[in-house]
């Protein structure tokens, strides 16, 4: 990480937060910039004490995340960033790269690795799994559901900051703007991708929401007016025992009401990517994400399973 040995007094607030997040620390309690600098110094010490891991082919550090990088790297037509699920690794989704290539186009694929977590192996932010599993036992009006989809989890703010650094690095690498970046993920990675896409003032080329669920819905609703027409593909297994399909349906309804262009492609499986027809829908969505391609009309839910 480029800030590992930097003088923390020279770093911006954004850089300090990214450094803190990369070390798995929280900015909670940091009121003044001096507090952030002290926490960033602690983060440098923690990161320096971690034994370096051997670099695998295509491995790079982007935005403070260890990433697998595949496909074309310079002057690309499209960049695709895919975030793995809770407790998984960045190699889990890397197998999608070959089937998502676009003939005649240069596509950069980036698969970041979530930070290690003492209880969940790896996590983008702290997820209360049991809270989310109650979604399958309650309707949308249940008290447990209301808390699960409104409470802001620990580490989400830091994750947003570091994800923006990741996107910036990917854009610089590929020579593209946000309108040529597809953000996507599976499970917790899907939730993270959608949340990050809603934080800025511009829409990415598309958002791939695979087996996700709603989160901080009040915040999402406030951000949606700035993202009318944002292209989103949602996929989910009808028999998902981890994040029930009805949960992504609530997220879809929220997005459609906010003016996003949502395509749904559900399947009969569980907490998995789905069969060939779902993978084909994902490939078609990515291929149509290059600016100028036809898009679903804003404020609609299109496609099978919608």
Structural commentary:
By secondary structure, the chain is of the alpha/beta class. It is built from ten helices and eleven strands. Strands 1-2-4-3-7-8-9-10-11 form a nine-stranded mixed β-sheet, sandwiched between helices. It has a two-stranded antiparallel ribbon with strand order 5-6. Strand 1 and strand 2 (about 65-70) form a beta hairpin. Helix 1 runs parallel beside helix 2 (about 35-50) and helix 1 (about 15-20) crosses helix 6. It starts with 12 loop residues before the first helix and ends with a strand. About 45% of the residues are buried.
Summarize the structure.
34% of the residues lie in helices and 18% in strands.
Estimate the global geometry from the Cα principal axes. Answer: globular
Query: SSE order in H/E notation?
Result: HHEEEHEEEHHHEHEHEHEHE
**What's the number of extended β-strand segments?**
11
Chain oligomer state:
single chain
Please list the strands of the largest sheet in the order they lie side by side.
1-2-4-3-7-8-9-10-11
Largest sheet: 9 strands, mixed
Mean of pLDDT: 84
Low-confidence spans: 52-57, 293-306
Radius of gyration: 19 Å
Number of helices: 10
């Amino acid at each position: 990480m480029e800030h590992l040995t930097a003088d923390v007094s020279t770093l911006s607030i954004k850089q300090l937060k990214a450094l803190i997040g990369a070390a798995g620390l929280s900015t909670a309690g940091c009121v003044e910039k001096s507090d952030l600098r002290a926490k960033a110094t602690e983060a440098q010490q923690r990161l320096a004490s971690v034994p370096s891991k051997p670099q695998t082919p295509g491995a790079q550090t982007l935005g403070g995340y260890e990433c697998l990088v595949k496909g074309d790297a310079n002057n690309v037509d499209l960049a695709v960033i895919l975030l793995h699920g809770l407790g998984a690794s960045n190699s889990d989704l890397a197998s999608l790269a070959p089937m998502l290539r676009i003939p005649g186009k240069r596509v950069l694929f980036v698969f970041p690795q979530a930070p290690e977590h003492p209880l969940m192996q790896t996590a983008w932010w702290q997820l209360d799994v049991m809270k989310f599993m109650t979604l399958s036992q309650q309707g949308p009006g249940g008290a447990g559901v209301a808390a699960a989809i409104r409470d802001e989890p620990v580490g989400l703010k830091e994750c947003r900051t570091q994800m923006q650094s990741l996107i910036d690095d990917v854009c610089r690498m590929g020579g593209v703007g946000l309108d040529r970046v597809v953000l996507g993920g599976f499970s917790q990675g899907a939730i993270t991708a959608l949340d990050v896409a809603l934080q800025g003032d511009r829409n990415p080329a598309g958002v791939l929401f695979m087996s996700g669920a709603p989160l901080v819905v009040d915040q999402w609703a406030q951000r949606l007016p700035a993202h009318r027409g944002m292209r989103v593909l949602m996929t989910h297994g009808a028999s998902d025992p981890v994040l029930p399909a009805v949960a992504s349906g609530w997220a879809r309804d929220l997005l459609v009401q906010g003016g996003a262009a949502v395509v749904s492609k559900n399947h009969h499986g569980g907490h998995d990517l789905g069969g060939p027809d779902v993978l084909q829908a994902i490939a078609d969505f990515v291929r149509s994400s290059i600016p100028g391609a036809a898009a679903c009309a804003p404020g609609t839910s299109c496609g099978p399973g919608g």
